[in-house]
Amino acid sequence: MTTTPDAVDRHIERWLPVVPDLDADVEGAVTRMIRLTRHLRAVKERVLVDLDLPAHEYDTLHALAGRGGRTAPSDLAADLTMAPASITARVDALLRRGFVRRIPSTVDRRRVDVELTEAGQAAWRGAMEVQGAEEHRLLGALTATERRHLSDLLRRVLLVAEQPQSTPATD
Q1: Which residues does 56 contact at the CB level (< 8 Å), separation at least 6?
Q2: If we measure between CA atoms, which residue out of 121, 67, 126 comes closest to residue 94?
C-alpha cells in the first residue's frame, strides 16, 4: 500500500542524518499522536470560544453529565481532582448562567446535589457534537476494522504507560 508522505515523514527525514539510530516508526507514531492531540485540543478550544464556554465550565458540565446529570459537589470535585471547597465557585458560576441548579439530595437530606439544567445539557452537548464530528472526520480515514485495530493497539501502549516505571536497581 502506497501512502502519501505527511509532515511527520518530512520531520523524520530531517532528523535521520542528525540522529542516525532514530527509530523512524517510534518517532513517527509518537509525533503523529502528539500532533493529533494538539489538533483535537485546538478544535476543542475553538468550539468553547465559539460557545462562550470557558474550559473549566465545560469540564464541570462534562463531569456532571458523566454522572447522569446529577451528583454531589464532592463527587464532582473528586472527578475533577479538585478540593471540595474549590468546586463551589464553579457551581456558583454555572448556576448564574442557568446551566445547573442545586437540589436536595435524595440520599441524604443534609446534602445538596448539583443537577444539569436543559441549558447546561445543551451547552455541553453542543461542544461535544462539534468535537465528536471532528474525531469522526479524522478517523473516517480508516475502515471500521482499522479503527478497532488502532484502538486495540493504543490500549496496549496505554496499559504500559499506566504502569509505574521501574527504577534500576543500584548495587
Answers
A1: 90
A2: 121
Look at residue 6 and give its three-state secondary structure: coil
Coil vs helix vs strand at 93? helix
Q: What is the pLDDT of residues 18-45, one digit of tens each?
A: 998 999 999 999 999 999 999 999 999 9
Cell numbers linked to 100: 445547573
**Running DSSP on this structure, what letter comes out for residue 107?**
S
pLDDT in tens, 139-160: 999 999 999 999 999 999 999 9
The DSSP secondary-structure symbol of 151 reads: H
The owner of cell 448556576 is: 95
Burial 146-155 (b: 16+ CB within 10 A, else e): eeeeeeeeee
Q: Which domains, and CATH codes, for the chain? A: 8-50 (no CATH), 54-143 (1.10.10.10)
CA distance 160 to 165: 9
Residue pair 44/124 in contact by the 8 Å Cβ criterion: no
- Report the candidate in 50, 80, 86 with the shortest Cα–Cα distance to residue 66: 80
AA identity, residue 74: S
Matching residue, cell 442557568: 98
**Residues in the chain, overall count:** 171
**Residue 99 near residue 161 (C-beta atoms within 8 A):** no
**Single pTM value for the model:** 0.81
